[in-house]
Predict the 3D structure of the following.
Amino acid sequence: MEGIKSETEDKLKMDGIKKELRNPSKATHQDYFGKAISYICITLVGCLVLSILYFITTRGVATFTENHVNLWAFLSGTNWNPGMLDSHGQPEVGALPMIVTSFCVTVLAALVATPFALGVALFMTEISPQKGTRFLQPVIELLVGIPSVVYGFIGLSVIVPLIRHAFGGTGFGILAGTIVLFVMVLPTITSLSIDSIRSVPMYYRSASLALGATRWQTIHKVVLRAATPGILTAIIFGMARAFGEALAVQMVIGNATLMPHGLLTPSSTLTSQLTTGIGNTTMGTLPNNALWSLALILLLMSLVFNVLVRFIGKRGSMKNEFKSCK
Amino acid sequence: MQTYSFDQKHIIHIPTEKALTTENLQVFYGDNHAMHDASLEFPRYRITALIGASGSGKSTYLRCLNRMNDAIATVKGKIIYRDTNINSKKINVYEVRKHISMVFQRPNPFAKSIRENITFALRRNGIKDKQELAYRVENSLKSAALWDEVKDDLDKSALALSGGQQQRLCIARCVAMKPDILLLDEPASALDPISTAKIEETLKELRKSYTIIIVTHNMQQASRIADYTAFFHMGHVLEYDKTEKIFTNPQIKATEDYISGNFG
Amino acid sequence: MNSKAANNVATGVIYLLVTAVVGILIFLLGYILITGVPHVSIHFITSAAESFRAGGGIRDQLFNSLYLLVLTLIISFPIALGSGIYLSEYAPHNWFTGLIRTAIEVLSSLPSVVVGLFGYLLFVIKFNLGFSILAGAIALTFFNLPLLTRSIEESLEDVPNLQREAGLSLGLSRWKTITGIVFPAALPGILTGIILSAGRVFGEAAALIYTAGQSAPTVSYTNWNPFSAASFLNPMRPAETLAVHIWKVNTEGVTPDALQISSGASAVLIVVILLFNLAARFLGNWAFKKMTAAK
Amino acid sequence: MGVLLAGCGSNSASSSKKSSSSSNVKITAVGSTALQPLVEQAASDYQKDNSKVNISVQGGGSGTGLSQVQEGAVTIGNSDIFAEQQSGIKANKLVDHKVAVVGMTPVVNKGVGVKNLTMAQLKGIFTGKYKNWKQVGGKDLKINVVNRVSGSGTRATFEGAVLEGAKAIKTQEQDSNGTVQKIVSTTPGTISYLAFSYVNSKIEAPSVNNVKPTDQNVENNKWKIWSYEHMYTKGQPNAATKKFLNYMNSSKVQDSLVQKLGYISIHDMKVQKNASGAVTTK
């Protein structure tokens, strides 16, 4: 192609290349452009997150700064009736029943849903990818789009009577809420788990199988281990969905601001209280501020969960070792 | 493990035209001093082999030559190409890589068709003419000795090729860019002997028009194809000379032990 | 022998779990379809809603749902893609990046009514968008961004690093490497994210009540001028979506056939989502094949 | 009525010169979800003859409606309750336009065996004094009280008429008529209360003090549990808004639409109620 060329020609070419090496080219501009775009996007997302966090924090804190509610009373009180004053002339804003219920419902729903989601994910990735992707995946993704109200009504017409017949009581309570939420978070956890299991390189499996490991040993020791961080993310998003869900839960959990005494008594979550109350209160008043405080607590609890799950996930994770060359 | 002195070195200068030179090249991964003081000269239109045990720093060194280590390591020292120190922030790395191209240890064709694998980068660099593209596809595949095997399947996915074919496609992909220097990082280590032989044939052909620097852990391979050979040990270059001298009459104890298999 | 037994037990358990989930799925979908399909007719899909008489349809709501989805994706996908690229390709591995990730994940746990009110105060009132599809789409972007960003980031990260090195070593810019090589390879995973977030757009009600509104003014489907108030394409008109409509007839509906409308609308919604998911997968696979020549 | 129905079906009635004085007025009404369907339908009919006016009617809750109209963010705030009853609202800044009356009735699950309750019994049930239907003349069945969300118009009306300042027991709370209807019809022993229009054959509406929950009994205040639906404006409404509010008050709306949506026309009321609950004859 190039072979031997005359010296002058080579010299000219060399000067040209030297110049090119020193000057920015199209590629450099493209990269500035790309970098700029991605930085703008992440800044935008950051601004969105910050603005909404700021919004909730300022309103949520107002209960304590403007209405002078005692923070501890808010967190540990069990009487919720922000429009009324108690015998000491203090507003009744004890959020503990809702905090406990939200916590129970979310954790239970995630605990119940995770084995099912992992079972389905493993089935679709390790056991029968063909059938799995063809039929199961579209149907599971379908579930995300069913409006909460529909889940709520099915829960109300099927699950609540079922629980009533099986265990007595009214049927409303944490158990009913958990069952409805379990179905609602299932698609999120399953889909994201599938993605993370799929991304475990094939040669990991081959290597393990070649060493004489059974399929389960391979799944258990290699695939799941390698996919742990992704699965944890899936669980976090599942719990987030459970946390934030209101319309469906509120129909089946009974929506009573009572301390839950077991899984079968009516109780109320932070979100359902927030959703039912917010349209009936006036901005800037204590009942309204108290609802925003619930939202703030919800955020903080979600943050704690997030950090906790990440912390648990760090132990035994192998992801960092894979990606070290990046 | 036997320890060798790093003070004793035998590094020759190249009498002929130099394609690339490094001066006191040092690499740090965080606090880890991975490469000490490598000063080598690479002759034009020759094959130079970099040999050494795993972890000796030969791959690290190679990856510095077209600035692929930028993101993960700190590289100090000079890399002179065309009278220009290309190890500098002011240098346009994308231009560097157009002239100094790299083939990796594991074949990494794009998840695209065979044709697209070659034309993708060309088109992004402004070559739009269809005839020119077709000419380059054919030419590069021929110089990588792959043309006869794939000429009827150019629109098939590159991932459907065998490992050896994939690696030759990766070579063709670089060649199509018409670079000056080809860097190869153990290109045959993941391949069978037949594919390896084909790649070696290919390299011998390419040597006529390209300067080739190849990292290999296979000493036979180095002795078969390389004109010059550098021996790396624990982040130091201990010996650099013509290949036959390295293999028949090494000046350094470590080199001698390594090539005679008494190493470690 | 022991490990073999464990293998069998585990496989059995997985089958059991899958059977249970399939059972739940069949029950749920069956319930919705069996109660709903008998009420679905051409008339139901093609006529406007009635607020107090029986026999109303869901034409406008159905269209609004689809239109809102399109607008939401137009707004949120580029942002999520850009952020996903940042997180996977450019972000340094430090505490700040971790903070951004955590913040995004926490955002996704916000109850929709909070996002709705935020959207109401900021976009509907402050930015004077009024109750409009646009305001609704922006509010839904808040919802979509966390999941979408995250799934794009993960999909991009799953593309082997070798592919990036290949692109870079050919003198391609990082940006071209990402958009031309990494992105096409990550497409199937990104698609999952889109489908999941589209599902949420279809199913969301609480956030939309405060932003897109819960009324469906009569629009003309022959007016193609998006700036005309009567046009169906006008993004500044209030628009009740199917999910909001289902919520409305279930909670405050006074039409005699509220229950039928609700079940019929749910069935239609499910079918529409199914069609959307299949179409998205089909298009995605087509694009994937086109870009990667995968056979 | 015939005129109205004809108006519904056709899009042709657009040539009107009445609104030519004002160009493209935008009216936004926000608030009560219960009132939303009525105003929306009326607005849609109204716009057919007044194409220059653009009326957007949305929900969001009475509290939202009142606070947003007070801030001037929307033109009209729809509310189930008097502004005076809502904390944080300066009622003297707002002008009340009553557009309908809504009657509310206690509803019970079929099978509690009660056809009539006295006001005192009703109060006893909702304050937790009675725990079993046996105590009020029904079957031996636990009473399950489903209350409405505190702060909602329905609850304020019910508690104002029944509880007389006593505190309701803490129990389930639901915010929508539809959900309550569903829960009452499916859960044995349940009692709650609903607007008249949500009472159907699956649930029972007992009479109170032997007065049946009918529109006629509301009109002459024999049935005590009722309230107004309000549309509030900040200060006196502007011309276009006033015209629309007049339309809401016209017999065209009051005699047909209002009744079709299950409300009672304010024209039919023989009494009136003020914010503190005092009833006087008109």
